[in-house]
Amino acid sequence: MIPHGYRRPLLIVAAVVAVLSLAAVGTVMAIAFANGVAPVWITFTALYGLPLAFILMAALVVDSVWARRRQ
Questions:
Q1: Torsion of CA 9, 13, 16, 20, to 10 degrees
Q2: Number of folded domains in the chain?
Q3: Among residues 14, 13, 40, 43, which one has the least CA distance to residue 28?
Q4: Long-range contacts of 41-46, Cβ-Cβ distance < 8 Å, separation of 24 or more
Q5: Which of 6, 7, 18, 22 could be cross-linked to 53 through a Cys-Cys bond (beta carbons 3.0 to 4.6 Å apart)?
């Protein structure tokens, strides 16, 4: 179970990672549309950021359901 004090910061981190990853996906697509190659760090953010944000948010949802069932 995730301690109560860490839930809100973890949610904020997951949301920020998701937004930055979506921006990176858009950037990679825009650069590819212009027949260019995106820098490695942008591609890395696009490829690994969204799954990381999804896992963090899924963990928060599972923890919330688990805590609610125990009440």
A1: 170
A2: 1
A3: 43
A4: 45/20, 45/21, 46/21
A5: 18
